[in-house]
Amino acid sequence: MLKFYPDRRLPALRRFVQDVLAILWVGFWTFAGWLTYQTVLGLEVIADGIRDTGRTFNHLLDSFRNAVPKGIPGITNLLQGWANQLQKNTGDPLIALSQTVRHDIAVLALALALFLALPPILYVLITYGPWRWRDAREMGSALAFVRTAMESGRIEQAKAVLAYRALATLSFTHLMKASRDPVGDLSNRDYDRLAAAMLDRAGLDPWRLAAPADPDRKLIEPHPEMR
Description:
By secondary structure, the chain is mostly helical. The chain folds into two domains: 7-133; 153-227, no CATH class. It is 76% helix and 0% strand. It contains seven helices and no strands. Helix 1 packs antiparallel against helix 3 (75-152) and helix 4 packs across helix 7.
């Protein structure tokens, strides 16, 4: 079970802002990578210029071939041979070079875009993403624990488990904010304060574990600084 946002408004708003910032971060660097790709890809005009130069040479040579007088022994073949040789050494190589330059520019554009955008995007996905998933899964598991306790009617036993877990896992600062005498609460089986602190730590409101027979009962909530 997954629960992505806590019950209380302030922690839920904090999680929401974090999610929005993460999405904006990924979107910004994705746009930056795309802009870099398009900018570098604009250098393809160089390849187009080389191609057009080669085509211009070929057109001039075609015009020259058409202008060569036909049927002159030796002269016609000589001039046609010169035209073919010029095309092979000028126009055709330039057209082939333009294709190579276009390919290299496309590869460079993609490489620069990935080099710019991928590291910051992966940083967020690798660090924030797994933490956010674990956080949602932890809140979902806590909610499942509470629901099971409510359905089975073992509310006091569930509070006892939460109280002992609070004593074992909460820092002393949070523990003393939840109760002035945590050990005394456990000895007296007064689990409300510690259970409420543990539920709040798990992102749940203490009212979720209120007894059905006494719906108006209010658990002692953790200190506001714990929220």
